[in-house]
Amino acid sequence: IKIVTTHQLQEMKSKGEKISMLTAYDYSMAKIIDQSGVDVILVGDSASNVMAGNETTLPITLDHMIWHATSVVKAVKRALVVVDVPFGSYQGSSSEALRSCIRIMKESGGHAVKMEGGVEIKESISRVLSAGIPVMGHLGLTPQSIYKFGTYTVRAKEEAEANKLIEDAKALQELGCFAIVLEKIPSKLAKKVSESISIPTIGIGAGPNTDGQVLVVHDMLGITQDFKPRFLRQYADLNKIMHEAFENYVSDIKSQKFPNEKESY
Ligand code: KIV
Ligand code: NA
Questions:
Q1: pLDDT tens across 163-203, in order?
Q2: 183 is catalytic
Q3: Are the beta carbons of 1 and 21 closer than 8 angstroms?
Q4: Residue 219 CA: which ligand is closest?
Q5: Is residue 1 part of a domain?
Q6: Number of other CB atoms surrounding residue 68 within 10 Å
Q7: 255 and 204 in one domain?
């Protein structure tokens, strides 16, 4: 197969080459991201926030995720496409988890799935893995559990939670996950986790010592306005560029500068 494989990600960790990952939810954006050489494209359930305007990731459904993933897969030639399994479609029942993941793989053509949680969801993870579906783990600030945490602040600052996170990471590796996202945890802990497992870790707000990095594409492009955590580096100010373009468009219409003769038939 021509795409980046989970085995190549493993090799990248062994060689010390950092892994790049970005989210995408639609065809046009995914095409630009893929052509830019990003290794992994995550069809994140953050689509619930950035695409649908919800406050949390909880409302997005399996059908919605499959819709986004299908659009992304059509655009991608090189990157590994990982699809988030949405809240309510895998926890608590390994049969339901398997059914959800099979639907994602069959209907969207995605290459792997991501599920949030550690030992709590081990049955679901192993059932999905046993069907030959690669699974990416996700530990730390797992947004599907936001009402349990009650806050979006850094996780695992206390020793008990940090120790559980290390145990969970080891358990996910034992089960056979090919990588783990570490979200919003202290750098020191992320370093310790990354050194104590052989599968790659991909960090977001987890410092420089993970094996790769991921950001939400609308955040790093500066399209999102009201979300500026310290871990977020803005690589563009698309909000400003888009505002200017839209305002110029309106103004050209009002002043009858658009369309001109060359732009007419
Ligand atoms: O849904 C998402 O965007 C994610 C990343 C932040 C890891 O899960
Ligand atoms: Na997610």
A1: 999 999 999 999 999 999 999 999 999 999 999 999 999 99
A2: yes
A3: no
A4: 1
A5: no
A6: 25
A7: no
- Ligand 1 center to 131 CA (angstroms): 24
- 183, 195, 261, 263: which is the annotated catalytic residue? 183
Q: Are 219 and 210 in contact (CB under 8 A)?
A: no
The two tokens of residue 233 are 């580096």
Instruction: Kindly state whether residues 167 and 229 are assigned to the same domain.
Output: yes
Token reading at 239: 């909000």
If asked whether residues 54 and 122 sit together in one domain, one would say: yes
Domain count for the chain: 2
Q: Is the pLDDT of residue 1 over 90?
A: no
Which residue in the block uniquely carries the two structure tokens 């649908």? 52
Detail the residues annotated as belonging to a binding site for 3-methyl-2-oxobutanoate: 45-46, 84, 114
Segment 218-241 mean pLDDT: 96
- Residue 219: pLDDT band (50, 70, 90) is very high
Mean pLDDT confidence for 83-101: 97
Of all protein residues, the one whose alpha carbon is nearest to atom 2 of ligand 1 is 44
Ligand 1 pocket at CB < 6 A? 23, 42, 44-46, 84, 181, 183, 204, 214, 216
- Whole-number pLDDT of residue 226: 86
* Ligand minimally distant from the alpha carbon of residue 152: 1
